[in-house]
Write a structure and sequence with these properties.
Blueprint lengths: L3 E7 L13 E3 L21 E2 L2 E2 H8 L6 E3 L23 E3 L5 E3 L5 H10 L4 E4 L7 H12 L5 H8 L8 E6 L12 H14 L14 E4 L8 H11 L9 E8 L15 H11 L1 H16 L6 E9 L18 H16 L4 E7 L9 E4 L2 E4 L1 H8 L7 E3 L1 E3 L3 E4 L2 E4 L1 E7 L5 E7 L6 E8 L5 E7 L19 E3 L2 E3 L2 E6 L3 E8 L1
Parallel strand pairs: 1-22, 2-5, 2-13, 5-8, 8-9, 9-10, 10-11, 11-12, 12-13
Antiparallel strand pairs: 1-17, 3-4, 6-7, 14-15, 16-20, 18-19, 20-21, 21-27, 22-26, 23-24, 23-27, 25-26
Helix pairs in contact: 3-4, 6-8, 7-9, 9-10
The protein binds alpha-L-arabinofuranose.
Length: 504
């Protein structure tokens, strides 16, 4: 009986919308995240469109990436946008002192970022420099991007080849201002943030609508609530002159604490269990911050935006430590699914999230090495979860059971369900047990179940990875799902994530 679990899905009930922005990405000017990962330059022998890798664009389009956060991270608070516009040979070389003191050619700037976002069919989430910039610099940057009128900056953008204004979907008002963004006190930040909210307008009247440039304030990065209190208390009394639409939250899974020392390769079940245990804390972290937000904003107008999350392991041997390069394994796929499930359960308040980071950095979707590219297990989770974008949460009742390893106890099963716009029901099931399969029987109430099919992601070991030479060790395969008389049965492989569609 221990190897069976029963689920009950109430398909007629609805929860919150699982906002597609929960599946956002983060691409900082860090290591090989942009340079090499996205940007190879128009003269490269690597196939590209206007300098942007075609293979990476093709892979990302499959994920329907809703938004990309750029240029940082810590880098954002030292970025001066003027260095990154105009003819490439006239751009100044600068030093990326946030990440490794490497020389930055500034070849990938605002126009290249907007081109990238356009090529992958996504939206721009631009983080402003509140640390070392000024409100005037930020206002001019946003004017360069959004002005529709023939202002001097709109003309400059047109002269750089982009007459039509860009859309900024989200605007970050600083990054980790309590630490790398300027080590500010909460009160100092609140005063500064109000100024940027007030004096950095979207210059495109067609996009002035609030939904067109959501302003995201810096929020907490530790489980304490002091920062959230300060921002939300101020927001409760905001006037016509300033507003925010979201509060950012950063939290990484660092199973050994700082500095990250756990390996991303060649680990065993003990590391797996500890890492998964550590990541499940995300739920409690969100609850704590939500309780404070509910106090000042019971109508949930301000979204909680988890715009940096994911695993942070020891740098891969032989790589530049500041480049934050790590491998991505089956464990990381399980971890990604568990976090996406947590976000879905908090979807009434958590309406955006950005995994750190998109390519070659931390928990990446894609790894590249010159002309080579490989898709990671985390990539496949994002691909399998595409149907959950903007779907409506449907409650699932189940007894999760337990998986015990040494002194670590984990739930054995996790599950979420959602209904898409066509009426299809989607079910995501994770078997956390790395050793044993789990038989599932699900009652689907309130819906006729005509047909079901699914895909599952599993691998020989918790540390199985995809490499440039063996890129298909961890890839989805069909799942053996059956439906009969309103019941669905499927056997979940050990350490697997399965996504099933049920057609009415
Ligand atoms: O994602 C790497 C870094 O982690 C970001 O630059 C920073 O915001 C966070 O501390």
């Amino acid at each position: 009986a221990q190897d069976q679990a029963h689920l009950s899905i109430d398909a007629a009930k609805s929860g919150a919308k699982i906002d597609r922005n929960l599946f956002g990405q983060f691409a900082e000017n860090l290591g090989r995240g942009l340079y090499g990962g996205i940007w190879v330059g128009p003269d490269s022998s690597i196939p590209n469109t206007r300098g942007i890798r075609n293979d990476v664009v093709g892979a990302l389009r499959e994920l329907k990436v809703p938004d990309v956060r750029w240029p940082g991270g810590c880098f954002a608070d030292q970025y001066h946008w003027r260095n990154g516009i105009g003819p490439a040979d006239k751009r100044p070389a600068t030093v990326n002192s946030a990440w490794g003191d490497v020389v930055d050619s500034n070849a990938f700037g605002t126009d290249e970022f907007m081109d990238f976002v356009h090529q992958i069919g996504s939206n721009a989430y631009v983080s402003l420099n509140l640390g070392s910039g000024t409100p005037q610099e930020a206002a001019e940057w946003v004017e360069y991007m959004t002005a529709a009128e023939p202002t001097a900056l709109a003309k400059e953008r047109a002269a750089n080849g982009h007459p039509a204004p860009y859309k900024i979907a989200m605007l970050g008002l600083g990054n980790e201002s309590w630490d790398c963004g300027g080590a500010m006190s909460p009160d100092y930040y609140v005063s500064l943030m109000k100024i940027y909210s007030r004096f950095v307008p979207n210059m495109n009247p067609a996009q002035r609508d609030k939904d067109q440039m959501l302003r995201i304030a810096v929020g907490p990065g530790t489980p304490t609530t002091e920062w959230t209190e300060a921002v939300m208390k101020a927001w409760q009394h905001h006037t016509w002159s300033w507003d925010i639409n979201g509060l950012s939250l950063h939290w990484y899974t660092v199973p050994t604490g700082w500095p990250p020392s756990a390996p991303s390769i060649n680990f065993g079940v003990e590391d797996y269990a500890k890492t998964i245990k550590s990541t499940l804390f995300m739920d409690e972290f969100l609850r704590k911050q939500e309780a404070v937000m509910d106090k000042y904003d019971p109508e949930k107008k301000v979204a909680l935006v988890v715009d940096e999350w994911g695993e942070w392991f020891a740098p891969l041997p032989g790589t530049n430590k500041s480049f934050l390069e790590q491998q991505n394994s089956m464990r990381d796929a399980v971890l990604a699914a568990l976090n996406l499930n947590i976000f879905a359960r908090h979807a009434d308040r958590v309406r955006m999230a950005n995994i750190a980071q998109m390519i070659n950095v931390l928990q990446a979707m894609i790894l590249t090495d010159r002309e080579k590219m490989v898709l990671t297990p985390t990539y496949y989770i994002y691909k399998m979860y595409v149907p959950f974008q903007d779907a409506t949460f449907v409650p699932v009742a189940f007894d999760a059971g337990t998986y015990v390893h040494g002194d670590v106890t984990l739930p054995r099963l996790d599950a979420i369900a959602a209904r898409d716009a066509t009426g299809k029901l989607w079910l995501a099931l994770t078997n956390l047990d790395p050793e044993k399969p789990l038989q599932i029987e699900a009652d689907i109430n309130g819906m006729k179940t005509a047909a079901a099919s699914g895909e599952t992601l599993t691998a020989p070991a918790v540390d199985s990875i995809n490499t440039f030479d063996s890129p298909r060790t961890v890839v989805p395969k069909p799942a053996a799902v059956k439906t009969r008389d309103g019941k669905l049965t499927v056997t979940l492989d050990p350490k697997s994530v399965t996504v099933i569609s049920i057609t009415p």
